[in-house]
Design a protein that fits this description.
Elements lengths: L4 E8 L3 H13 L5 E4 L40 H21 L11 E3 L2 E6 H15 L9 E3 L2 H7 L13 E6 L3 E3 L1 H13 L4 E4 L2 E9 L2 E8 L5 E11 L5 H8 L8 E12 L2 H4 L5 E3 L13 E7 L2 E12 L11 H4 L6 H10 L1 H11 L3 H11 L9 E4 L3 E8 L3 E5 L2 E5 L5 E6 L7 H12 L1 H5 L3 H7 L4 H6 L1 H14 L7 H6 L1
Parallel strand pairs: 1-2, 1-11, 2-8, 4-13, 11-20
Antiparallel strand pairs: 3-7, 4-6, 5-6, 9-10, 10-11, 12-15, 12-16, 12-17, 13-14, 14-15, 17-18, 19-20
The chain binds flavin-adenine dinucleotide.
Flavin-adenine dinucleotide binds next to helix 1 and strand 9.
């Protein structure tokens, strides 16, 4: 009997998640044999594409929904601090890779862009003030500046201040040390670096159509989307990094841990401006507050984007409802994902989230004029002719069983792994690409526990001199690592002070 091809690891999808995991595994074990299987004809064709996401290097510097306010007015900064240190872990990995000749320049994917928060009205201002007071005491946010002075704001956000009523109550914070990340360029650099090593392949125009248990591993069925030919590959470990389409593949695996999960797809749109006369007046990512009752991913922001060496502005996102799990997916994705095990949670979420559904439908029905009105709350003098509508990537939010409510909708990400560690999938979308490295390190610890405590430990310590927990509490170490990363990624110039840390 003919045997299937065999590799150690199959990674489904060539987005930022699979690309990161593949490179990490190859660093830890250069002899590992792996194959990335992608249905499109290039890497980063879905959510990781630079125009399908906002490219914010999420570090908790400006995202107001990471710091919820309690009824007594206090602001909880735990999530912002954690995401900040996760982003420092991502930066450590990218800094490590920039020392390799096959990885290329960091300038193609990461650029310094200040991160600002902007609020209107008395409630917004008192929240931002309290947030600033609490956050700026933490070493990760000690450089944050706060102002209620309109002249200062006009310096920070020259596009956003003209045309506002004189009596408008506004405030802003600024952190200069923010970034814009082209996750598409990063993904493709990772994939190129990966395939410069032996026994690492990326196969495009190939769809993973099925998964079957095979002894201690899996047989993965792969179909060529052009010829229709199929082949089977045996793998000891499978990663389902298929973005929104990870859920149906997880269901196809039949693992116990997949039961009860459902997906709620949310589409998105942006307004984009490439007019250099407008673009040159805004050098920031400015995040504000979501409208009351709207979901966290609808937080409006006006962003400088740096893609392929050119600057643009992006405003949005405007959310929408669709039944597709991928931008290039099928309208049958959602109905086909309904199973006996998840219909209960899905119906409970549909019943308990009518407001969200109504909100999404109203967003879809908006006219261009209504979209421009939202933009003008940020940039009062925006001209229609400078802006065009772009379709963003899909986010498939997680639906999970809940003992009390039957089912709940979750806006974060969830790593689902088989008990025996032979398969893992990443569900959900937020905070996403910025924290990929932390998520993939968690996967490696879950699925390769013997190796991380043994032969891989020294290499992990070399790549990651400081992980999230210690960065959260050790101010001196945080500053040292942060400066080293910023110098290695060319976000700041090496100065005498930074050299003393190196
Ligand atoms: C509107 C929006 C804004 C966002 N903004 C930000 C942001 O500012 N900052 C941030 O950090 N993150 C952001 N994110 C999140 C971020 O984009 C995602 O978390 C990240 O790109 C997901 O990467 P991935 O590799 O899991 O998925 P993807 O990039 O979607 O890649 C999945 C790949 O799998 C392939 N695939 C699917 N099914 C199969 C199959 N059966 N066989 C073979 N291949 C398959 C797809 O073609 C695709 O290439 C945003 C996301 C959206 C949608």
């Amino acid at each position: 009997m003919a045997h299937n091809e065999a590799v150690d690891v199959v990674l489904v999808g060539a987005g930022i998640m699979s690309a990161t995991l593949a490179v990490l595994l190859k660093e830890l074990d250069p002899a590992i044999k792996l194959e990335v299987v992608e249905l499109m004809d290039s890497g980063a064709a879905e959510s990781s594409n630079p125009w399908n996401n906002a490219g914010t290097g999420h570090a908790g510097l400006c995202e107001l929904n990471y710091t919820p306010q309690a009824a007594d007015g206090t602001v909880d900064i735990k999530k912002a601090v954690h995401i900040n240190t996760q982003f420092e872990v991502s930066k450590q990995f990218w800094s490590y890779l920039t020392r390799k000749s096959t990885f290329g320049s960091c300038k193609t994917f990461i650029s310094p862009v200040p991160h600002l928060s902007f609020v209107q009205n008395d409630d917004g201002v008192s929240f931002l003030k309290e947030r600033f007071k609490t956050l700026s005491k933490h070493h990760a946010f000690s450089d944050m500046e706060y102002t209620e002075d309109k002249a200062t704001m006009a310096e920070w956000m020259p596009l956003m201040m003209p045309g506002r009523p004189a009596d408008e109550v506004v405030a802003a914070t600024r952190v200069m040390n923010g970034t814009d990340v082209n996750f598409g360029a990063l993904t493709n650099q990772l994939l190129k670096h990966l395939t410069s090593a032996p026994d690492a392949q990326v196969k495009y125009c190939k769809r993973v159509t099925g998964l079957k248990r095979n002894g201690n591993g899996w047989t993965v069925s792969i179909k060529d989307v052009n010829s229709g030919n199929s082949r089977d590959v045996d793998a000891k470990f499978v990663f389902l990094g298929a973005g929104g389409a990870a859920l149906p593949l997880l269901q196809a695996s039949g693992i116990e841990e997949s039961k009860g999960f459902g997906g709620f797809p949310i589409s998105g749109q942006w307004l984009r401006c490439d007019n250099p006369e407008v673009v040159k007046h805004h050098q920031a990512k400015v995040y504000s507050q979501a409208a009351v009752g709207s979901p966290p991913m609808s937080v409006p922001h006006l962003d400088t984007r740096v893609v392929d060496g050119k600057k643009s502005l992006l405003f949005g996102p405007y959310a929408g409802f669709t039944t597709k799990f991928l931008k290039h997916g099928s309208f049958m994705d959602l109905p086909m994902s309904v199973r006996a095990g998840n219909i209960g949670p899905m119906l409970a979420v549909a019943k308990n989230n009518m407001d969200l559904t109504k909100y999404l439908v109203s967003e879809v029905m908006q006219s261009m004029e209504q979209r421009l009105d939202s933009l003008r709350r940020f940039y009062p003098e925006a001209k229609a002719e400078d802006w065009r509508l772009e379709v963003a990537g899909q986010r498939v939010q997680i639906i999970k069983k809940d003992p009390k409510k039957g089912g709940v909708l979750q806006f974060g990400t969830e790593l689902v792994a088989a008990k025996d560690g032979t398969l893992a999938a990443l569900l959900g979308a937020s905070p996403g690409a910025s924290v990929t490295v932390s998520i993939m390190l968690e996967l490696i610890e879950k699925c390769f526990p013997n190796k991380t405590s043994g032969e891989w430990a020294a290499k992990l310590a070399e790549i990651f001199p400081a992980r999230e927990k210690v960065l959260e509490t050790d101010a001196a170490l945080y500053r040292k690592i942060n400066v080293q990363n910023n110098v290695a990624l060319e976000l700041v110039e090496a100065s005498n002070e930074t050299e003393s840390y190196a």
